[in-house]
Amino acid sequence: MSYTITALSEHTGAEVRGIDLADPIDEGTRLDLNDTFVERSVLVFRDQHLAPHRLLAAVGLFGEVFPQHNSRFALPECPLIHYISNEDFFPDGRRYIPGEGYHTDHSNAARPPKATVLHAVSLPDRGGDTQYVNMRIAYDGLPQEMKRRLDGLQAVHVYQSRHSARKLMALTTEARDHVPEAVTHPIVRTHPESGHKAIYINPIRIEGIVGMAEAEALALLADLLEHATQPKYQYRHQWQPGDLVMWDNRSLLHKANGDYDMSQLRYLYRVML
Ligand SMILES: [Fe+2]
User: Fold this and answer.
1) Which residues contact 150 (CB under 8 A, 6 or more apart)?
2) Rounded Cα–Cα distance for residues 30 and 4 (Å)
3) Which residues are within 8 A (CB) of 98 and not within 5 positions of it... i.e. 6 or more apart?
4) Could you report how far apart the first and last alpha carbons of the chain are, in Å?
5) Cα dihedral value 259, 229, 114, 139, nearest 10
6) In 7-128, where does DSSP find H-type helix?
7) Distance 143 CA to ligand 1 centre (A)
8) CA angle (273 as vertex; 111, 140 as ends), nearest 5
9) What is the Cα–Cα distance from 112 to 123, expressed in whole angstroms?
10) What is the C-alpha separation between 270 and 247, in angstroms, rounded?
11) pTM reported for the whole predicted model
12) 168 pLDDT higher than 90
């Protein structure tokens, strides 16, 4: 197959052109794309126009589809795909902007999704970028003393941490039955494909650190977040019509930006692996 892969920043992001994910992909290409994904953490396929079932079939190339937690956002015709929209409101009438503030997706699952895929359906004229920070190089950038301190630490993740600054949309009753009460994950995780270590924290879901007093745990998590979100670890994705973006939750945090004209629809399909 004839396609090009271009780096989108010094350390994170790669753009793929010349591939239509609606077509069959040969095994050599699949492996090449997966290697790029593991190395660059964000893979951007330009000019894709995939209806929900096509999208589901296409991303199956990279892994098994993960059932997302809050079924209120599931597409009726294809429930493994959820939507992201700026036209949902909290019961009190405030607009709900999903994904504001750095986080990683569904870390309250015993086995969280390795990847999240967004496919743009409708975008505002400007704004609404998705920002990423690379937690692998952020880990590499920690002082040795901090790396030693983090070694072996486990964090407790829940659906909605009481320390979170951002409020999530309440789960549907049906979804509540499938969502675990609390799980633990190491604060430093090792990527199963690359073997690299990365910081694994989540301000909206971490309730505490096992065996550590709350004040100390919150201070440590705040320090780690401040370190990891420095501009030198960031890649900011500016969406183009037709973009399909797949990112690696094992080595990134991400956040949405509600900085655009809210009279314009921003609507994307979301699927996880
Ligand atoms: Fe997210």
Assistant:
1) 142, 187, 188, 199, 224
2) 14
3) 84, 85, 88, 169, 256
4) 25
5) 170
6) 27-40, 52-59
7) 28
8) 70
9) 28
10) 12
11) 0.95
12) no
The 10s digit of each residue's pLDDT in 141-166 is 999 999 999 999 999 999 988 888 77
Q: What's the gap in Å between 91 CA and the centre of ligand 1?
A: 21
Identify any residues that bridge with 89 across adjacent strands, giving them in sequence order.
Answer: 95
Question: Checking DSSP bridges between strand 42-45 and strand 78-85, what pairing results, if any?
Answer: unpaired
SS3 content of the chain, % helix, strand, coil (to 5): 20, 30, 50
Is 114 in contact with 248 (CB distance < 8 Å)?
A: yes
DSSP strand E in the chain: where? 4-7, 14-17, 42-45, 74-75, 78-85, 88-89, 95-96, 115-122, 130-134, 154-157, 183-186, 188-190, 197-199, 206-209, 234-237, 244-248, 252-256, 267-272
113 CA distance to ligand 1 middle (Å): 11
Paired tokens of 246: 């797949």
**For ligand 1, a single-atom ion, which residues have Cβ within 5 Å?**
99, 105
> How much distance in Å is there from the Cα of 249 to the middle of ligand 1?
9
